[in-house]
Design brief:
Residues 665-735 are annotated as: Disordered. InterPro entries: S04_transporter_CS (IPR018045), SLC26A/SulP_dom (IPR011547), SLC26A/SulP_fam (IPR001902), STAS_dom (IPR002645), STAS_dom_sf (IPR036513). This protein is mainly alpha-helical. The chain is built from 29 helices and eight strands. Strands 4-3-5-6-7-8 form a six-stranded mixed β-sheet, sandwiched between helices. α4 (59-86) packs antiparallel against α15 and α8 packs parallel to α9. It is elongated, with a radius of gyration of 35 Å. The relative contact order is 0.11.
């Protein structure tokens, strides 16, 4: 065991008087005001990261950015046309959206790899929202989509400017993976009718309905199917074939694979032109006439903005989640740290300003960002070169877009979206790591498939919040024992070290709270600590006659149940203990011996190393807990705290000041109504219990232990010389000033336990 000659660690120098809340706030406000000028300059500078890296721009970066920008430009044009079709909008709006994304992003970006523009998931969501809100004819679909972009941009800009990007952290990665995979499956199913040329299928229905209707109408497939499946076959051939050639060292194959969308569009557009250019009506569905250049600048009208408010919330959540996921992924892969708040500013500026040019909601693209990263991009300036390609397409290539087969665009969507679907290995990984994460993934995927992306987002986000609150309200705690070989205090339920851990001295309980002590979990901690006290210590309080008990008093039943549970645990622990010679036949005797060795509780030591927050409800819990354990033990039980963070010292000193008084930290009932119902003493008044225990029970004292003393109800004043002068009769809080709490705060658990042993004969046995 611990060497008794080892001196106690030097205790922290706690102040005699803690600053008031007012003085703390005043000091913080003064500090903020002194630095407000530099903070404002830093904030404005952070809004435009381009001013940081542009002065360092060089020729090497320029050539790399040109290559990456032009490469992405070859991909963004066919995808923009396809995703506009997915959003049920004319194809030119996809080009408008992609242009504003790549043009504006470079001025606000903190990621060199990300490309903002039309994406499959947000386009699919936009199409679903248009179908549900604008199908009745009340709203124009194009204006409704523009209003969605405007509102989404406003909300994103507000969140980014106020630096509230922390809200994104409340959505776990499994939820993002789930709804992305579900959206991918939904999009692929919705494009089957386009691949086959089947008309009359409402692709905005639930996925299982779309799949069923497509299969029922397979007989209506047209010539479009030949173009659709041939385009898909070429895309997959280029994708996997070029990847295999690249792995074998053929560098040219990588660029061919990256350009596969453009190559397939050029090939099948040429075939379509050869078939249809002399016909009055095309033999299969084609894009049709595309207006040249940009449309007129316009402001979203108020009627469409009001109608788009509910739908914009879903677009806001999806676009933020998708964009931040892309940004963080490529930042992690390429060794830099993007700023999530500034990325929301960039995304909001893109959607807000783009809406005046006629864009629908945009966000970061997984596929184009991957291509940009693989192309060796060096700075966000590469987006400008992509913008040049899009402008060229709008003013020069629009006549050629007329003959692009719609089935080819469907094939491009299917090929691009297939990379967003999570692999089966992720399911196995989530199963191995955390079942709740797997449930979140399945919920997001399932609701996306059977209902819609909008419903899936709400359900999965609600589930994530519930899980988060549950983990906060039902945290872990541990009863600690000491491993003598290392001097560490570990949970007695630890699978390995718990078997060799030595419990603390008789009458001492060491508890570690593994979460902040706040209102969601205060009652949970209190009830479980009291259960531990009942199961591991002897009852020393007053046994009241039946006519004096409260109708709800179930202390006797709790004691019996706790004893039985504790005896079972002792038997199991005895069998598991390393080197134990306990046999099955001797287990009842082991349990009987363990029960007979219970001692009255003298002190509880709290390990606060994992506590990051304490509120008034937590302080009230400590106060109530101390009153209850005093009554149970029939004597004053000291509370000691180890590893307390400095910012919590003032709060805990307040607790030590008001403990064992009738003051509530957060009174709900006015103090004048605190009248006892059965006697002049409260039913759970620890002072009364102590006095009666002193009169009726003195034989249970440990050797060397001081007897219960009812002369004071305030242990801090007793030890610190404060007396009871600071107690008030009006129920107002007692100011914790000029109080010495050195005896109750300790640097280590060992120090706290040794202090509880002062003056007791058991100290020599425990420290031997």
């Amino acid at each position: 065991m611990a060497d008794a000659s080892v001196p106690l660690s030097e205790p922290p120098r706690y102040p005699e008087e803690y600053p008031t809340q007012y003085s703390v706030l005043k000091q913080k406000a003064a500090h903020r005001l002194r630095g407000s000028g530099s903070a404002a300059r830093h904030y404005l500078h952070s809004l435009f990261p381009i001013v940081t890296w542009l002065p360092k721009y060089n020729r090497t970066w320029f050539f790399s950015d040109v290559i990456a920008g032009l490469t992405v430009g070859m991909v963004v044009i066919p995808q923009a046309l396809a995703y506009a079709k997915l959003a049920t909008l004319p194809v030119q709006y996809g080009l408008y959206t992609s242009f504003t994304g790549v043009l504006l992003y470079c001025f606000f970006a903190t990621s060199k790899d990300v490309t903002i523009g039309a994406t499959a998931v947000v386009s699919q969501l936009t199409g679903q929202l248009i179908a549900s809100h604008a199908s009745s004819g009340e709203f124009d679909p194009v204006m409704f989509a523009i209003a969605l972009a405007f509102l989404t941009g406003v909300f994103q800009l507000i969140i980014g400017l106020l630096r509230l990007g922390i809200v994104v952290d409340f959505i776990p990665a499994p939820v993002i993976a789930g709804f992305t995979s579900g959206a991918g499956i939904t999009i692929i199913i919705g494009q089957l009718a386009g691949l086959l040329g089947i008309a009359g299928i409402n692709t905005n229905d639930n996925s299982y309905l779309v799949l069923g209707n497509t299969l029922k109408n397979l007989g209506d497939a047209k010539l479009d199917a030949a173009f659709g499946f041939a385009s898909l076959a070429f895309l997959l051939f280029f994708k996997f074939g070029c990847r295999a050639l690249t792995d074998r060292g053929h560098r040219w194959a990588r660029w061919v694979g990256i350009s596969r969308n453009a190559l397939v569009v050029i090939l099948f557009t040429a075939i379509s032109y050869g078939v249809n250019h002399n016909l009055a009506k095309a033999r299969f569905k084609i894009v049709g006439d595309v207006p040249k250049g940009f449309g007129p600048l316009q402001v979203p009208d108020a009627r469409h903005i009001r109608g788009a408010v509910p739908a914009s919330i879903t677009v806001l959540i999806v676009s933020i989640l998708e964009h931040v996921a892309v940004v963080k992924s490529y930042g992690r892969l390429n060794g830099y740290r993007p700023d999530a708040n500034q990325e929301l500013v960039a995304l909001g500026a893109t959607n807000l300003l783009g809406s005046f040019l006629g864009t629908f909601p945009a966000t970061g693209s997984f596929s184009r960002s991957a291509i940009k990263s693989q192309s060796g991009v060096r700075t966000p300036l590469a987006s400008l070169f992509t913008a040049v390609i899009v402008v060229l397409a709008l003013y020069v290539l629009t006549p050629l877009f007329k003959y692009i087969p719609s089935a080819t665009l469907s094939a491009i969507i299917v090929s691009a979206i297939s990379d967003l679907i999570s692999r089966p290995a992720l399911v196995k990984q989530l199963w191995d790591i955390q079942l709740l994460d797997l449930v979140a993934f399945v919920l997001a995927l399932g609701f996306t498939f059977f209902f819609s992306i909008e419903i899936a987002i709400y359900v999965s986000v609600a589930y994530s919040v519930v899980v988060l609150l549950y983990r906060l309200a039902r945290p872990h705690y541990a009863v600690l024992g000491r491993v003598d070989q290392t001097g560490l205090w570990v949970s007695t339920k630890d699978q390995f070290l718990g078997r060799i851990a030595t419990p603390p001295p008789p009458g001492v309980l060491v508890v570690k709270l593994e979460e902040s002590l706040t209102y969601p979990n205060a009652n949970y901690f209190s009830e479980h600590i009291k259960d531990v006290v009942i199961s591991t210590t002897e009852f020393g309080g007053v046994v009241l006659p039946p006519d004096q008990k409260l109708w709800c008093d179930d202390t006797d039943d709790k004691i019996k149940s706790a004893r039985k549970k504790n005896n079972n645990a002792v038997q199991v622990h005895s069998l598991q203990k390393v080197g134990s010679d306990v046999t099955i036949a001797s287990l009842p005797e082991v349990a009987k011996t363990a029960d007979s060795k219970l001692h009255r509780l003298c002190a509880i030591v709290f390990d606060f190393s994992a506590v990051n927050g304490i509120d008034s409800t937590g302080v009230q819990m400590l106060t109530d807990l101390r009153r209850d354990v005093d009554a149970y033990a029939g004597q004053r039980v000291e509370f000691h705290f180890a590893h307390v963070r400095p910012r919590f010292e003032r709060i805990l000193s307040y607790f030590l000041r008001i403990t064992r008084t009738d003051h509530d930290v957060t009174p709900i009932v006015p103090p004048s109504l605190h009248e006892p119902q059965y006697s002049s003493q409260r039913a759970n008044d620890s002072s009364a219990s102590v006095r009666q225990a002193q009169e009726t029970d003195s034989i249970n004292q440990l050797p060397g232990q001081r007897p219960p003393d009812a002369s004071s109800t305030h242990s801090v004043e007793e030890h610190a010389g404060g007396g009871g002068d600071n107690d008030r009769d009006d129920g107002r809080p007692v100011r914790p000033a000029s109080i010495n709490v050195r005896e109750y705060f300790h640097a280590t658990v060992d120090d706290a336990v040794k202090v509880t042993l002062a003056g007791r004969d058991v100290e020599a046995a425990w420290t031997a």
